[in-house]
Write a structure and sequence with these properties.
The chain has 778 residues and is of the alpha+beta class. It folds into 5 domains: 98 residues, NAD(P)-binding Rossmann-like Domain (Rossmann fold), CATH 3.40.50.720; 191 residues, GAF domain (Beta-Lactamase, 2-Layer Sandwich), CATH 3.30.450.40; 138 residues, 2-Layer Sandwich (Beta-Lactamase), CATH 3.30.450.40; 153 residues, GAF domain (Beta-Lactamase); 149 residues, 2-Layer Sandwich (Alpha-Beta Plaits), CATH 3.30.70. The protein has 21 helices and 26 strands. It has a 6-stranded antiparallel sheet, sandwiched between helices. Strands 14-13-12-17-16-15 form a 6-stranded antiparallel sheet. A 5-stranded parallel sheet has the order 3-2-1-4-5. Helix 10 runs antiparallel to helix 11. The longest helix has 44 residues. The chain is rod-shaped.
């Protein structure tokens, strides 16, 4: 006696109660419905009740424990897909689940006509086939074809009074038979069964397409041997024919006697097999139509995703999710990037995946790396136990002869899984590769346009800058943003400098890292300046440059030129693209973009140098290139402040040619200018490097002599002696016109005086010396 549970307490489920009650081999023990308003719970309100004698339990709680030991068979009469999915998720391997239609066929047609295991009479068999046809026509073949095959087998067993049977189908290789439905056979044996065409009883029928009736003595010794080998006393095996093609075999066997079957049984089973073949063909057609429709929907969804304006990373994640949902698998998509010949995981259907997920493979590493290297697909299967299998597919994504990426699908499944039925892997890989290639090109163009726009914007700021420090700051920070660089170093060499000084750096806040980076950059900058061309370093670990704590991996150093000379360098380190973590090498496109960017920097630096040159010219005497009067006054003021702050003494002196006006009249302006230039050179050559000399006007020079270790007068006397030894063109000079040098000197030790006071005191001292010299000559 089978204990039956009905899931679904509506009208359809309750209508089965009187049918099953008439059965002698089954009884309903449980009715379950998750809907508290279901009919089963409203019977009392309608004036009805289930008889207590039936001992039927009712509940609205659907749990696997309800069916643990007390239930042998479940009739799924639920009216919603969620309940159906929940029921089948319980994995009740020992409990058969059938539909209400199957229940009506079993207990409405078979129960009373096959008592005691006897064979049905011909009239009942005809009615049974008619009833079965009605059931087949009424059900959803796309959803219930497996149950219908089980029902066909149940009819075959009941009508022939046998205890064992199976429906076998030929697999896609057309070399093996697999059991699609079975009864009276160990489930593990049945699920693992893989019979060869031409071997065994069923294999012979599949090969020949002719039915076999094996009952009693068999004349064919080979068939007799097969019966002995398969340990059956009587068997019927008929082919499932689609037109003339064998698509499977229907088998029944028994141990009850040698003459258990006759020709009538064979004829009935042949008709039943024809119906089974029709079920299979119709279900396959419906399945193909469904897959075609589903595939069409998938292709439309994928096209819509890839044609959207979203970033490529986001589109790939949506593609992975769509493919995963369609195939019930986990989908991963890898794109080239990162290290040379590497793959980055760019998208996954896994809920744990995010844009911050970092997973990278080198070419040839792992399954995905091997597929990328060989550029050929890979399929793997394996057993996980409990009849569960593991499937893996990996496809190279190729477009225009180039690897665009790798797509991998993995899933676990009970029994075989044919990916070709769900999607067209080759077409999907080709479509995805073309779309990725196209999207990558579009994104590359967009990035280039964005980069050019950013360069132009930074260029405007550079050209508007009027100070070197502002240019340095803009160059270093803007370059880091534009070129995705983790660190930058900007060096500049002024006119009188002998090396390139670091003017600004980005990403070097840590002191130790900064020191290490500058050491590395020094060598790179020197080589770039020497070659006058950009240098790309793909991997510093394989270069001759000093290592930078293994932090700096890649680099690009570009020269900054002006009038053909290298006046500076810009170094970019560690190119890290958005969504990646590992530095990648800079390329020729980066070089070209850097050239465009630095053209603005060169113009900005040229402007600043022109400004500084103009400032320098306006602060210098045109004849001698020495500081002019305004510059001397400014410098004198600064030295006075320094003296007061540091309590340091300095001297201020004036030197002049006393008879300069006569010299001009006698020798002319050109010769007078030469005299002034020679005097300037002599004074500069005989002063210390940190002394300052300037020309005030005519032949008058001013000297600032800081930190004197001796008397200022002694320095000036030695200077005058040097000047007196110079031969100033004896052809035009008489004794009266020979230059007479006079000087005035003031010492300053922090007194409360103004610049004008010091200048006045020095001038008075000079006039005193002039009078003395004039008196001595007369």
């Amino acid at each position: 006696m089978k204990n039956v549970a009905i899931v679904g307490g509506g009208k359809e489920g309750l209508s089965l109660l009187p049918i099953i009650k008439k059965s002698s081999d089954a009884r309903v023990v449980l009715v379950v419905d998750r809907n508290p308003n279901a009919l089963i719970f409203k019977l009392k309100e309608l004036g009805y009740k289930i008889a207590d004698g039936l001992k039927i339990k009712t509940t609205s709680s659907l749990t696997p424990f309800l069916f643990s030991d007390a239930v042998d068979l479940i009739i799924d009469a639920s009216e919603d897909d969620e309940t159906r999915r929940l029921l089948h998720s319980f994995h009740l391997d020992q409990v058969e689940i059938i539909s209400p239609l199957s229940a009506r066929l079993i207990w409405g047609h078979l129960a009373d006509k096959n008592k005691g295991g006897s064979v049905l009479p011909a009239s009942d068999k005809a009615g049974l086939l008619s009833s079965l046809k009605e059931v087949v026509d009424a059900v959803n073949l796309a959803k219930d074809h497996e149950e219908l095959l089980a029902m066909v087998l149940r009819v075959a067993l009941s009508s022939t009074g046998t205890e064992r049977g199976s429906v076998m189908l030929i697999d896609r290789t057309e070399k093996h038979l697999k059991m699609a439905a079975f009864q009276g056979i160990d489930s593990e044996i049945a699920e693992q069964f893989c019979g060869r065409i031409g071997e065994g009883i069923a294999g012979k029928v599949a090969e020949s397409g002719e039915p076999l009736l094996l009952s009693g003595r068999v004349d064919d010794s080979k068939l007799d041997a097969l019966m002995s080998l398969e340990k059956v006393k009587a068997a019927l095996s008929v082919p499932l024919l689609a037109s003339t093609k064998v698509i499977g075999v229907l088998n029944v066997s028994t141990d009850r006697g040698d003459n258990a079957f006759n020709e009538n049984d064979l004829e009935f089973l042949t008709e039943l097999a024809s119906m089974a073949a029709g079920i299979i063909l119709r279900s396959q057609e419906i399945e193909e139509m469904r897959h075609h429709a589903d595939s069409l929907m998938l292709w439309k969804a994928l096209s819509a995703i890839m044609n959207s304006a979203a970033p490529l990373d986001k589109k790939l994640r949506q593609v992975a999710t769509a493919v995963s949902e369609h195939t019930n698998s986990e989908c991963m998509i890898y794109l080239p990037g990162g290290k040379k010949n590497g793959l980055y995981l760019k998208a996954s259907s896994s809920t744990s995946f995010s844009s911050s997920t970092h997973y990278q493979l080198t070419l040839g590493e792992g399954i995905e790396g091997s597929v990328a290297q060989s550029q050929s697909e890979l399929v793997m299967t394996g057993s996980l136990g409990n009849n569960e299998k593991f499937f893996l597919w990996a496809f190279p994504l190729l477009s225009e002869g180039m690897l665009q990426g790798v797509m991998k699908l993995t899933l676990r499944s009970k029994g075989e899984y044919e990916l070709e039925k769900e999607i067209f892997p080759g077409e999907l890989a080709s479509f995805l590769a073309k779309e990725i290639n196209s999207a990558a090109k579009d994104e590359k163009i967009a990035i280039r346009e964005t980069k050019i726009s950013a360069i132009n914007e930074a260029g405007i700021n550079l050209i508007a800058a009027s100070k070197l420090r502002d240019v340095a700051r803009i160059v270093s920070t803007s370059a880091a943003m534009i070129f995705d660089a983790e660190a930058t170093v900007f060096r500049f060499k002024k006119k009188d400098d002998d090396h390139y000084k670091v003017m600004a750096a980005y990403g070097a806040e840590d002191k130790d890292f900064r020191i290490s980076l500058f050491k590395l950059d020094k060598g790179l900058a020197v080589d770039t300046a020497t070659k006058k061309s950009p240098l790309i370093i793909d991997d510093f670990s394989n270069s001759n440059y000093q290592k930078c704590d293994d932090i700096i991996k890649t680099g690009l150093c570009s020269p900054i030129t002006w009038h053909g000379d290298v006046i500076g360098t810009l170094s970019l380190y560690n190119k890290i693209l958005r969504g990646t973590f590992e530095p990648i090498p800079f390329d020729t496109e980066d070089c070209d973009a850097a050239r465009r960017f630095l053209s603005y920097a060169e113009k900005a630096l040229a402007n600043i140098m022109e400004i500084e040159k103009t400032r320098e010219l306006t602060s210098l005497d045109e004849l001698t290139s020495l500081p002019n009067a305004a510059t001397i006054e400014k410098s004198l003021n600064g030295e006075m402040e320094r003296s007061r702050r540091l309590n340091k003494k300095f001297s201020f002196a004036l030197i002049e040619v006393a008879n300069f006006n006569r010299y001009v009249v006698a020798c002319g302006r050109e010769e007078s200018n030469r005299l002034v230039s020679v005097l300037a050179s002599i004074i500069v050559e005989n002063l210390r490097g940190f002394d300052l000399i300037g020309r005030l006007w005519g032949s008058r020079f001013a000297l600032i002599l800081p930190e004197l270790g001796e008397n200022g007068k002694d320095i000036l006397k030695r200077l005058i002696i040097k000047i007196s030894k110079i031969d100033f063109d004896p052809h035009c000079l008489t004794d009266e016109l020979r230059p007479v040098i006079v000087f005035g000197l003031v010492d300053y030790s922090g007194e409360d005086k103004e610049v004008a006071d010091i200048m006045k005191e020095a001038a008075e001292s000079l006039e005193t010396d002039r009078r003395k010299k004039h008196a001595s000559r007369t």
